[in-house]
Amino acid sequence: MIVFEDVTLRYRPDAAPALDGVSLSVAPGDIVAIVGANGSGKSTFARLCDGLLTPSSGRVTVDGLDTSDEATIWDVRSAVGMVFQDPDDQIVGTVVEEDCAFGPENLGLPSDRIVERVAEALATAGLTGLERREPHLLSEGQKQRLAIAGALAMRPRYLVFDEPTAMLDPAGRRSVIAAIKRLAREEGHGVLIVSHDVADVAHADRVVALAAGRIAFDGTPSRLFSEPETLHSCGLALGEAGLLAAELRALGFDVPADAVDAESVVEALWR
Amino acid sequence: MRAMSGIGQYVPLDSPLHRLDAAAKLGITAALTVGLFTADGFAGLALIAAAVVAAVVVSRVPARAVTRGLRAVGLIVVFTVLANSLRWAPSIALVHLGPLGVDAAGLHRGLFFAVRIVVLVVGTTLLTLTTSPVQLSGGLERVLAPLKLLHVPVGDLAMTLSIALRFIPTTAEEAEGIVMAQQARGAVFDKGGPVARARAYAPVLVPLFFQLFRRADALATAMEARCYRGTEGRTRMKEDRMGAGDWMAMIGIGAALALAGWFL
Ligand SMILES: Nc1ncnc2c1ncn2[C@@H]1O[C@H](COP(=O)(O)OP(=O)(O)OP(=O)(O)O)[C@@H](O)[C@H]1O
Ligand SMILES: [Mg+2]
């Protein structure tokens, strides 16, 4: 479990807190989406999960380990995999498999176990066959899946994604989201995903909206989508499909509230 | 920028040269350099050049990739030949060009230096063309390992080198993007003299450096998130080691190259 207990974080002692009294927990197998307007504290939240930032007050623990404790920080970091928005900011290796091996190498694992983990992580991320490809020759979607594979190779129990699909086209976005869903559903990883995209949020079990560093909403995606004001204040916007779905719903059609992309709206109407 | 970006960039192929251990290749490249700088006649140079050409053939790297490195030093080569061979009002000259003349001994010397530069560039480019940056930095780390006794952070230096190499294409793409953005706003990069051109690039370099610093910061965070804490206690997926074949190739070829320079 990743547990936030009344966490406040100030970047500077005299500045307004970027995160203000947040309490929350994420269990293995959960997909939790974090939404909010620009500057609401989402990335700050993500960075607190693996001790890249430590709280000014309050406590963050990962499976009981305090992220402020220097002695166990590397255990925390190997338990929580982080994936950031721009894959070019996190790919260190010059070919796919070398990058994927970076984490396990840092953990000091013997070479045969690294080989095993790299093969496994690349397979999960759908990159098998591209082991010797140079990162700059990958598509954006493949690069982002490489960043995910790099995190997976450390065998984390939790994965934290900070806007992993922001730079992707719809196809790349679908492939990354599918990979993320599989990780939570089949592998039992606890997943935290920061996103600005309603389609990503629709796949979550739970949505937490931040506003000025505080939790402004905590509930299911369908409930969030049925509250247009909350949605709007989080900087989220329903696309055309979502708006159509809302109107159809108002007319009495049976369209679930979490049908926000064209595919799921069509599917709902077809039934 | 695009012309510069491909120089010496690893060409992943499977050839004996690619399979040769990076440390052995570094050793051979060092011997090549020694050979080139101790050679006092064309015979020595020719022998070394022939060996380098043979290596290019064995590596199966496309000739274009090899000559791309030469384009960058083309100006230096031309300048070397001219500076050595042209004399002001010489008494004996092969050719007279107005007050200038081409001096035979100077031409000989100029060509000698030029060949030396060309062979050196081709040889070292071949090293990076056939060795992945990770292998290269790993090899360098093993070659420089004795310096660890003097508390030189060899591992961190090798990691820095490998990351720098990894970011060359990314940075080139970024620079190109900025150039295009500036051109879209009416900036002109290819008019005027060298000074005007250099000045036109200032609005490119500033945002480029800004980008690089931002990226360096983000990369450091991402490396920390992936448990990087210096090279102490770090292991490698592919622990390269010099095999018997690597030793034999290094000592055999290295000695041949160095001796060719020494005696010819
Ligand atoms: N390194 C920093 N130093 C000082 N202040 C910072 C720093 N990083 C973020 N902040 C401030 O903290 C607040 C929260 O920032 P954060 O990056 O967590 O927001 P965010 O929700 O991720 O926004 P975005 O949607 O733009 O990514 C903002 O007011 C921001 O200006
Ligand atoms: Mg952010």
Q: How many individual domains of chain A? A: 1
| Ions and ligands | adenosine-5'-triphosphate, magnesium ion
What's the mean pLDDT score of chain B? 85
- Secondary structure tally: strands of chain B: 3
The oligomerization state is heterodimer
Output the helix-strand order of chain A.
Answer: EEEHEEHEHHHEHEHEEHHHH
| Estimated structural class of chain A | alpha/beta
CATH class of chain A reads Alpha Beta
Architecture of chain A in CATH? 3-Layer(aba) Sandwich
- Kindly report how far apart the N and C termini of chain A lie: 38 Å
The CATH superfamily label of chain A reads P-loop containing nucleotide triphosphate hydrolases
Strand and helix layout:
The complex is a heterodimer of chains A (271) and B (264).
Chain A: E1 2-9, E2 19-26, E3 31-36, H1 42-48, E4 57-62, E5 65-66, H2 73-79, E6 80-83, H3 96-106, H4 111-124, H5 140-152, E7 158-162, H6 170-187, E8 190-194, H7 198-202, E9 206-211, E10 214-219, H8 221-225, H9 228-233, H10 240-250, H11 262-270
Parallel strand pairs in A: 3-8, 3-9, 6-7, 7-8
Antiparallel strand pairs in A: 1-2, 1-4, 4-5, 9-10
Chain B: H1 2-5, H2 16-19, H3 22-38, H4 42-59, H5 63-85, E1 86-88, E2 95-97, E3 100-102, H6 104-130, H7 133-143, H8 154-184, H9 194-200, H10 202-225, H11 244-263
Antiparallel strand pairs in B: 1-3, 2-3
